[in-house]
Amino acid sequence: MSVRARNSAATRGRVERSAPVFAALGDQTRLRVVMLLCGDGPASIARLTAGTSVTRQAVTKHLHVLEGAGLVRSARMGRESVWRLNPDHLDEARRRLSEISGQWDKALARLRTIVEE
Questions:
Q1: Range of 27's domain?
Q2: Can you give the pTM of this predicted structure?
Q3: Bridge partner residues of 89 (DSSP)
Q4: Considering its fold, how many domains does the chain have in total?
Q5: Between 56-68 and 3-25, two packed helices, what is the crossing angle to 10 degrees?
Q6: How sure is the predictor about 8, in pLDDT bands with cuts at 50, 70 and 90?
Q7: What is the pLDDT of residues 11-57, one digit of tens each?
Q8: What burial letters (b/e) apply to 9-46, b meaning 16+ CB within 10 Å?
Q9: Under a CB-based contact definition with an 8 Å cutoff, are residues 45 and 59 in contact?
Q10: Residue of 93, 11, 100 whose CA lies nearest to 108
Q11: CATH code where residue 87 lies
């Protein structure tokens, strides 16, 4: 297998791992939930819905989508589930964004060189 084919396969693998994370974060409610869990730490559904017009049932559905993407996990504490962030998948997404940013920087540098010549 050529170097280019290995790089292409590796890129495909990174995209396949990252795509569910970006899809899950593409929803306003799910992004808000992730931000709350990032800032406030583990929380119950009651705490995640406090002060919002979003129902517990709706937040539960959103949490299951986030769980499917590997972004959150839950643990039972008494009668409630407490949800916490799984930072590994967020770190993966951060690496992809950093990679894309680096590619843009290189492309812009090439464009600047062409324009200045």
A1: 3-116
A2: 0.74
A3: none
A4: 1
A5: 170
A6: low
A7: 676 777 778 888 999 999 999 999 999 998 999 999 999 988 999 99
A8: eeeeeeeeebebbeebbeeebbeebbebbeeeeebbbe
A9: yes
A10: 100
A11: 1.10.10.10
